[in-house]
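Batch manifest, entry 17 of 40.
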Amino acid sequence: MQSDTPSLVTLEQRGAVLVLWIDNPPVNALGAGVRAGLADGLANAADNPEIHAVALLARGRMFSAGAEISEFGRPSDAPLLTDLCNRIESSPKPVVAGIHGRALGGGLELALAAHARVALADAQIGLPEVKLGILPGAGGTQRLPRLIEPDQALSMMISGSPVAAPEALAMGLLDKVVEKDLEAATITYALHMAGNGPVVPTRDRRDGFRDGKRFFAAIAAARRTQETAPLPGPGRIIDCVEAANLLPFEQGLAFERAAFSELVATPESQALRHTFFAERRAAHMEGARAKPQTLGHIAVLGSRNDAVALIMELLFAGYDVTMVDHDTQSLSEGLEAVALILAAEVKAGQMAQAEHDAQWARLYPALSGSDDGEAADMLFLTGPYRARGAEVPAVPIKGGAPIVTLGHLGAGGAQALGLILMPASRNGHLAEMLIAPNTQPEAIATLLHLLRKLGRPVVQGQNSGVNAGLVLALQSSLKTLEAQHGPEPVRDLLGRWGMMRDNKGHLPPPLGPINLWSGLAAPVMGALANAGLRMIGEGTALRPSDIDLAFILGHGFPRWGGGPMLWAGRRGLMVLRDDLNHWAGDAPDIWSPAPLLDDLIRQGISLGDLNDA
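Output type: structure tokens
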């Protein structure tokens, strides 16, 4: 028997087991259609005397990445995920979840409600809701500590980091791990449960509560670690886990739901969700849907520090790289710099000698003007070759290969691209791609594919780029405010934002909660938002959320701060204009309102509208 109604969940009878296949690509998010389909499947199983058990499986690359985040903060269609989990748990016939890829957030909560969990050995499972400023809201804080030790449950939810299937098995979170044939293993396990009497629902499990002294010691220890935490989510997770032990299950669910609703409404959670969607949105740039060219061999023209840093990233990503320069001494110095970095990795235990040898074997030196060697699929211009008007020697590259200039948009016609590689911040390694109006979509897609393989999130810019505008606005506003108020308040502000580098150049964590509305924070955020409005008006930036993303990923601003454009939207554009006019008396170049601001107010267009355009 096979049915395709509803289309997001397929029902397939396998003997005495009804398999419910989740099929909602790309990540099998548990939106309203999936929830309804699973609920119908459970009802079908309950009413069919031929069915003795249910298997929950998923098609595609993962079990489920969780709830549909766009539903947060607004009414959801029935059944709610909480109600669906309760239906699974109360099924009169055993339900077994078969996990492959990832089971995250609501996806894991769904599996926790099942009567058993089977997973492939390479599966990853976790509850990452804390990274969005919230907590598991479909029973996760109540069911997880019933299955595993309290310190393990707290760690999973407070860190938000996934655990591998073998580790989850050792914890007691999974019942079986298999190397292959997940479908068959899940069905077999479901039949086994059906033939061995009544099953124990997770709500009635007490595994994690057996040692009361250990349980409440873990609660107390977790609270101590969160005493100065800037986000409310971890503290409320601890409260919910404590409630799991102290309250009856239904009351614990109600406690969890109230805490979830409270956190969803916090500005920190709103900012974290804004950042999450900004990352998704940034990938939707011109040319992103074009087919990228195949990259195997990459040429880097230059051998100075910027070339060496780029070459290391390319080698670690598995590319063959040719280092090209005009004389043997420059090449030798560049090769020596690469060799020293690789040797330091081995000495520090970060790289095996075999990997060192493989990396070194993929690096080829070449003199500019030489026709020796394989033509490259992409060319990067670094060092003196990236300067405007610099004489760039001929380098063997394939026809149509992208020509990428570090630091700005260089020459190269339809294949020309610019690239700004930001240094590592607390939040990532941002890359800004500079695109000309006539740049070919294939060149854009090829560079975008490369940057994703390097693990760099990307924003799109034009002219001098988004980051340059942010740096100028930040430095100019801070300098003006320092002249007025002295250096100490400025240092305190940067320290609270976690943007004051220590002696080693690292960004320490932010110091406590962030107030963006008072003191020096407001004029600095106003300067950044005003610069953002100018960049959007000039076409340098594609959308407001890209500016926020650049400030967070490129400069280390806290994710839960949301960025200057979110701040401006919350402030209100008319209020922002009044503020800017007030501050402009001190420095018109910084705070005089950007022309776009008046246009938006006159037309009734919000910054959110620009994000969705």
